[in-house]
Write a structure and sequence with these properties.
mainly alpha; Protein LITTLE ZIPPER 4; ZPR
Length: 78
């Protein structure tokens, strides 16, 4: 029984370590995604302003990718 507990404890430690690694990777990917989205919106806004002043904004067609996200932006807090 003690051996089983030790094995389960080690598995749990590995899972927690892997979870932390994946959480950090997800945070970095989210930051990169936000930066790219912001850059895209700026470029489209500039292009829209240069091409026509009276038409609808092209940036309104870009969906906010965070609206459908169920992930917590700060996963360390419940």
């Amino acid at each position: 029984m003690e051996r089983l507990n030790s094995n389960l404890y080690l598995q749990n430690c590995y899972i927690m370590k892997e979870n932390e690694r994946l959480r950090k990777k997800a945070q970095l990917l989210n930051q990169e995604n936000q930066a790219l989205l912001s850059e895209l919106k700026q470029k489209l806004s500039k292009a829209n302003n240069n091409n026509s002043k009276g038409k609808n904004s092209a940036t309104s067609a870009i969906p906010d990718l965070n609206l459908g996200s169920t992930s917590n932006p700060n996963p360390s807090q419940p």
